[in-house]
Structure formats: structure tokens, C-alpha cells
Amino acid sequence: MRVLAVTDHDSIGMWERTGVWAKGELDGDASLLVLPGVEINTAWAGAEIHVLGYFHPGPFYDVGPWREEDAVEAVQLRAGKIAALEQRLEMLRGKRLERAHAIVDKLRGLGVDILWEHVESLITGTSVGRSHIARALVKCGEVTTAQEAFERYLNAGAAAYVPNYNIQPHEAIQLIHDSGGVPVLAHPKDTASEVIRDWVDAGLAGLEVWHPDHSPSQVDMLLKLTEDLGILATGGSDFHGFGLHAELGEFGVDAERFGRLLAQLDLAKY
Question: On the CB side of 244, how many CA atoms lie within 13 Å of its CA?
């Protein structure tokens, strides 16, 4: 892997820990380049839609070779944008926590031997999701794999599913733009092209074309759509932990396509 984007659900808590990378070109023995990002949960027409936000891959206070007074102003502007993003995400994380408690309560009502403490012990960041509950169910011996936990209990329509509070996709797109990021629709295999076109009109900058849930024919269809709309084609493994989905680095894009994203990030950074 040469580039890694960290896009936690409704959280930018990992930015500080991943905000250091080597200077220089992405060739030879250059170190891994880390993109700060976010994945915002949204709701549309009864479905859960995820919107990725990618941000400039530079130190938080790296404002370029400007005059000192201009640099100070840029730092303040960027810090204000990120603070506004974090404030909105904090509200969404609160709703995620409420949902997780409700799912555990529902599981216990089904006779599943799980406590909130089992889930809490697995939370290492600022955001909690169904993947934490799936891992807790494995640890408790109620299921053998996280995939089984989702199929039996956690997927939409399953026994312990609880819908999440979500904002609308166009709100997430605008929030990412306002924060200096580039919004991309995550794993859009089931999203109608006319809906995607509407979101592109609202500022959506790309589609996640390469993804473990996409068939070859879906990849071809989504890639053609990005070309028709003149937007970015991105990719990712959607890694949520070892053994939960695709493995880290299993899906991605080539250097040329990453360069296109980087060019948009250069324009959006402030």
C-alpha cells in the first residue's frame, strides 16, 4: 500500500494519530501517505447511504509557503471549518451510541447473553457501531463470526436491527464541502443513476467504484457513470477490522486516479 485513507464513521478522532507522514514523492521507498477522512452516515428513501469525505494529506497546520500573516489567517480558517465539522459529528456519534445501547437491549430481550460492558471493552475510538457489537457477540460465544452476527441480528431486517438517526445525503455533501473536503459516495451499487446525478448537482465529487461488495459488472457500470458525469472514481477495502469484511488494502485505485483526487484536494484544502 502506498496511500491509506482513514474514514471512520461519523468521527475524525484518528486524524491526530495519523496526521504524520513522510515528505517527498510517492515512489521508491517513500513511506505510506495517509489521507484524513470521514464516513458520514445518512438516510435517503428508507436506505442508509454513506458519504465519504477526503481531506488534504498535509499536516493540519501546513498552509504552504505563504507570508506569515496570510498563513495565520489560513490556519484560523481551516481550524474553524474542522471545528464546525467535529461539532456536527459529535451530535451524530451521540445518536450512534443511543442506537448501540438499543441494539444491546434488543439482543438481551431475545435471550442473547450480552452486556453493554462487552461492547464497551472493544471501543477504542470516539465512535461506536454495529461492528463493535458483532465482535462482542463473537467474544461472548453467541456466534462464530462477525458476518454471522450481522446476518442473524444486526443487518436491516434482522432480529435485533435498530435504525440509526441520520442526516440527508445532500446535508453530508454540503458539510464536507464547507469543511474543506471532497465528498464521494461510498459503495453506491444500489443507488439509481438519476439519484446520483442529483447529488452530483448538489456537489458530490465522486463515486467509490472499487469495493468488496461490487461485482465486475457493477464496477464497469459505476466507472462509466463517473466518466459520463466527469467525477472521481475512487476505491477502498471498507476495512472494519480483521475478519469482518475485505482485508486492508485489498481494493484501491491506481496512482493516476489518486492523482485526480489529490488535485481536487489541493483546490479544496482551504
Answer: 18
Distances (CA, A) of 113 to 128, 131, 159: 20, 17, 15
In this prediction, residue 25 has a pLDDT band, given cuts at 50, 70 and 90, of very low
Q: What is the pLDDT of residue 34?
A: 81
Distance (Å, rounded) from C-alpha 220 to C-alpha 210? 10
Structure-derived torsion over alpha carbons of residues 42, 44, 48, 53, reported in degrees to the nearest 10 = -40
Alpha-carbon torsion (138, 144, 147, 152), positive or negative: negative
Beta strands in the chain (DSSP E): 3-6, 33-44, 47-54, 182-185, 206-210, 232-235
Q: What is the reported pLDDT for 151? A: 94
Which residue shows C-alpha cell 434488543? Answer: 106
Once rounded to an integer, what is the mean pLDDT over residues 72-97? 81
Question: What's the rounded Cα separation, in Å, for the pair 49 and 110?
Answer: 28
Residue partners of 228: CB distance under 8 A and separation at least 6 = none
- Reduced to 3 DSSP states, what percent helix, strand and coil does the chain have, rounded to the nearest 5? 45, 15, 40
CB contact set of 183 (below 8 Å; sequence gap of 6+): 51, 52, 53, 172, 173, 176, 177, 203, 204, 205, 206
Sign of the torsion angle spanned by Cα atoms 59, 65, 69, 73: negative
229-254: string of b/e by CB count within 10 Å (b at 16+)?
bebbbbbbbbbbeeebbeeeeebbbe
Determine how many CB atoms are found less than 10 A away from the CB of residue 98: 14
Q: Which residue has the higher pLDDT, 35 or 210?
A: 210
